[in-house]
User: Fold this.
Amino acid sequence: MTSKDLQIEIHDTVAVIRLNRPAKRNALSDGLILSVRDAFQGLPDSVRAAVVDGAGDHFCAGLDLSELKERDAGAGLHHSRMWHAALEAVQYGPVPVIAALHGAVVGGGLELASSCHIRVADETTFYALPEGSRGIFVGGGGAVRIPRLIGAARMTDMMLTGRVYNAQDGERIGMAQYLVPPGAAFDKAFELAKRVAENAPLTNYALMHALPRIAEQPADQGFLTEALMAAIAQSAPEAKDRVRAFLEGRADKVKKA
Ligand code: 1HE
Assistant:
């Protein structure tokens, strides 16, 4: 399903997927979240990385509350599972995804951001989980992904007390890996996406699909999964070419930060 509320642009190897409902602060209606799912499931093979951003002053105001009607338990379960499927299409889709954050990153908007692989926030960004005060709970995978970014204690505090984190504190606690001046998040995210798109596809695959699972495994199983993934990645002809290029002085050295 596609929707007028989601813009998809392909710039060579980078897809830009933009929530485009600024009048409603990019609130995620059922149609919009399904479009996000379809966008990631339908990316052309030429795409190697993606950027997700939001039109207007805010990244995303979360679930479209105007659609929150009386649901029985079964319908609520399926609604949440629909969000899970959409955000799994982001996290475990074909390419790494970089979120460009600004303004409100709240509720389901934070759940969407946390399903991306890298988050770049500008200084206007703020993070909240207003579900706590709306009498509901997270349902888009936030209970799984957000504690892995900031810890369960901080998420509990955000939901119990309505605490809002500003951009600086958000970066400090792990909401975002990059903090940039106001208005600069998209350009930084796009620059990173172009860099990520140059990696060997199997390396990106390992980071997206193996690393998060290894991190959840008991150590002895994780070591074995790591060894299997390492063996597969290094056997690709592209890996041999890249290592040879370094040894022959044709590839960049690591430079001091
Ligand atoms: C919305 C939504 C929305 C704005 N659903 N319509 N999320 C929330 O509880 C956050 C609710 N939103 C806000 O707190 C604020 O709107 C913002 C801080 C994001 C932005 O404030 P502001 O002053 O720029 O905008 P506004 O005037 O509040 O909103 C502009 C319009 O967007 C207005 O509609 P209008 O027809 O009166 O112009 C708002 O009603 C509308 N709008 N946010 C629907 N969320 C998988 S489970 C996930 C569970 C959740 O995400 S719960 C958290 C929901």
